[in-house]
């Protein structure tokens, strides 16, 4: 297992790379979508939050795909700082909204995604995290009832208000869309769209040596904003894996999201998918409760026994990257940094303990 840090677009600077290294990371996962763009309920010093029904922000430029030069430059800056760039997390809704919506620009946007994957291959970036979701990460509330009054996020019941036209994946991609809301689709229709997407891009991912890595639905409700969700119980990840047998079809496994699911067992899920070698990288966070009533917690509290998660990964020889997912905000001038440093320190401590225990158990000669 390798330790990494996830950095939002505005954090791709030498200072943040130094912070990652100082906190014990060897790897980084980067976001190139600016989730915070013009989002009034979405402060930049936290995970992207939005409000229960306000989107994060406005999607990027539909005409501008990430270039090989840009990707190679970012990779070089990260390597010059002594770190490894392991993944890009998430596609910009501006580049693939009609793949999610099965809209008129779908075929052109399949070409967008193929181009992005090819360019990642050229730039030597091995993993693309994605989240095949219409409503996206939405319907959550931000509250100051974490431990010690920490600001954190969670759910206080279902979110049923439909998605307005021009919005998908909790971002606005068309500010001139006609009034009205998106028509509901069925779960089977959503799976059909995913299957077509994987069929269309998987050969390019294989050729390019890039793994696609699917995040489960956060929050994992069967339906959000009157649209179906794809992976909202642990066993549904298996359906996604079996849909396209390929080394390039993998998981961005989110421990917190799986723990929020109403069925199954987070330990069994981590064991099952790490045993199959299907996990590209891991989001680690703790949580109290299950959908539709839960709170994100600090790593050392909450429902999940992190020692048990990390020892399962060790036993199954998971050699990918683990990054902190979100953490509650700590009261200080750098709430994001403090939350991350606390989580990373905790993971380093548990890893050292597991490592030391495995040496002690080894027979002496
Ligand atoms: Mn996650």
Characterise this structure.
The chain is of the alpha/beta class. The two termini are 27 Å apart. It has a single domain (2-361), classed as Alpha-Beta Barrel (TIM Barrel). Helix 4 (106-123) packs parallel to helix 5 (187-208) and helix 8 packs parallel to helix 9 (306-315). The model has no long low-confidence stretch (mean pLDDT 96). It is globular. The chain contains ten helices and 17 strands. The strands form four sheets. It has an eight-stranded parallel beta barrel with strand order 1-2-4-5-10-13-14-17, surrounded by six helices. The structure holds manganese (II) ion. The site of manganese (II) ion (MN) has 6 residues, from loops.
Summarize the helices and strands and which ones pair or pack.
Layout: E1 2-7, H1 14-22, E2 27-30, E3 57-58, H2 68-80, E4 84-89, H3 93-101, H4 106-123, E5 127-130, E6 141-143, E7 152-156, E8 167-168, E9 171-172, H5 187-208, E10 211-214, E11 223-224, E12 227-228, H6 236-243, E13 249-254, H7 255-259, H8 266-275, E14 279-284, E15 286-290, E16 293-297, H9 306-315, E17 321-324, H10 335-361
Parallel strand pairs: 1-2, 1-17, 2-4, 3-9, 4-5, 5-10, 10-13, 13-14, 14-17
Antiparallel strand pairs: 6-7, 7-16, 8-9, 11-12, 15-16
Bound molecules: manganese (II) ion.
